[in-house]
Write a structure and sequence with these properties.
The chain is an alpha/beta fold. 53% of the residues lie in helices and 11% in strands. The protein has 3 domains: 8-71, no CATH class; 83-281, Rossmann fold; 291-420, Alpha Horseshoe (Serine Threonine Protein Phosphatase 5, Tetratricopeptide repeat), CATH 1.25.40. Helix 16 (339-352) packs antiparallel against helix 17. It starts with 7 loop residues before the first helix and ends with a helix.
Length: 421
């Protein structure tokens, strides 16, 4: 029979140990999730008291790894979000003329159960690269997840043109998709932690990468840890390489250190040419467009002469009289990097549908892409008001507030996000 009665500091000590070793925020992992993991591991190891289990965590490497496997829940899929892989394919094709005998080096971190690094490999093969032209390092702190990744075996059905183009590199066996040995050999799966080589200066990664995929990890770090991790990426990414992040993490990248790569909704960045000494102290979101449009966005009401004029002007340009079509069209325009037209279209949609949270969310994204942070904040706040449980809007607004120094507001939004899950 186990006993969970203990001094509060013991629970706190385990949580602090987890945060220190991994950099992961307790707020994002969830205190209840951590507590459940502790209880489960105590039952598995037949440990009677929390104090004894705390001792095991400090002394037994195997139990620490088992605890990590329990706490960290993999969340991934093949070709997740699609657009980053489309961007990678086009970028890689442009590099093949200058590769010669050199291989493209790619890092996937965290790689979870392997879907992302395999998606990267298949994307490059589909783009015309050979198996000899790239190599992928895939790192994760979960040994359990890496076991699945190394097997290359997934209970999914593959469909679509990309899967068909690379049909030689996978097969179906017993109703499971099995990666070919050739593809599996292009990926080096490693047990590791981003903290080891970005913060503690352990040389776990000692070479430059052409591409780094680190999507939806930075949101789990506190601001200080996040910037140290980004500094690590700065050190090991080639000067012309690409860093892919999650869409909710763009506010974490410093404008004078990173520049947005011109591929809509890929959320890919390159190193800025001349980072300034004060770059760490001035967080901003990068604007991919020039100032005339930015100036226009900062006061969008100035371009609306009247309801009739605005309506006629917009409809004559896009010819979409149905409100739902306007929202769809504004997304298409944003995806095509026609941000000014997307803004006009979405604004006209909101005049017809002033209570649509998705419309305000899209406006917030467009304004953020342009670099008008004040307007982005206003629209995202309206989206969150209309859709209190919208995870993407909550996270995007939290990161935006955090980048502007409003830590208390950002923390409140993160708490709301945790409650909504």
């Amino acid at each position: 029979m186990i006993s969970l009665e203990c001094e509060p500091w013991l629970w706190n000590a385990i949580v602090q140990h987890l945060t220190t070793k991994t950099g992961l925020s307790c707020d994002c992992l969830g205190a209840l999730n951590i507590r459940r993991s502790i209880v489960h591991r105590m039952k598995v190891t037949q440990t009677r008291t929390v104090a004894n289990y705390w001792f095991q965590l400090q002394q037994q490497g195997g139990e620490w790894q088992a605890f990590l496997d329990e706490v960290v829940v993999p969340e991934t899929s093949f070709f997740r979000d699609r657009v980053p892989f489309q961007c990678l394919a086009e970028w890689a094709q442009a590099q093949t003329q200058t590769l010669n005998d050199r291989k493209l080096k790619i890092l996937s971190l965290p790689c979870s159960t392997g879907e992302e690094p395999y998606s990267i490999a298949l994307t490059l093969l589909g783009a015309g690269l050979s198996l000899e032209q790239f190599e992928i390092d895939a790192i994760d702190l979960s040994d359990r997840a890496l076991g699945i990744a190394r097997s290359g075996r997934y209970a999914i059905q593959a469909s679509g043109s990309l899967w068909e183009r690379v049909a030689d590199y996978w097969s179906y066996q017993d109703q499971c998709l099995q990666m070919s040995p050739e593809v599996m050999q292009t990926i080096d799966f490693r047990l590791g932690n981003v903290m080891d080589w970005t913060i503690q200066s352990i040389p776990a990664i000692d070479s430059n990468y052409d591409v780094i995929f680190c999507r939806n990890l930075l949101i789990y770090f506190d601001p200080e840890t996040r910037q140290k991790v980004l500094q690590g990426f700065d050190r090991c990414l080639d000067k012309t390489g690409l860093l892919f992040v999650g869409h909710a993490e763009t506010g974490s990248l410093l404008r004078d250190r990173w520049s947005m790569f011109p591929f809509p909704y890929a959320f890919a960045y390159q190193k800025s040419i001349s980072p300034t000494p004060n770059s760490v102290a001035k967080p901003h979101i990068k604007s991919p467009l020039k100032s005339p449009l930015k100036s226009k966005i900062q006061n969008p009401k100035s371009k609306i002469k009247s309801n009739v004029t605005s309506s006629e002007s917009t409809e004559s340009t896009i010819d979409l009289p149905i409100a739902t079509d306007l929202l769809k069209r504004s997304r298409e325009l944003a995806d095509a990097s026609k941000l000014e037209e997307a803004l006009d279209c979405c604004e006209h949609y909101l005049k017809r549908q002033p209570l649509c949270g998705e419309g305000y969310f899209l406006m917030g994204q467009i304004c953020q892409a342009i670099g008008s942070l004040a307007e982005s904040d206003r629209y995202l706040a309206k989206a969150v008001y209309l859709m209190p449980d919208h995870e993407e809007a909550l996270m995007l607004l939290a990161l935006l507030r955090e980048s502007q120094g409003d830590v208390a507001s950002a923390q409140g939004l993160r708490q709301r996000l945790l409650r909504s899950r």
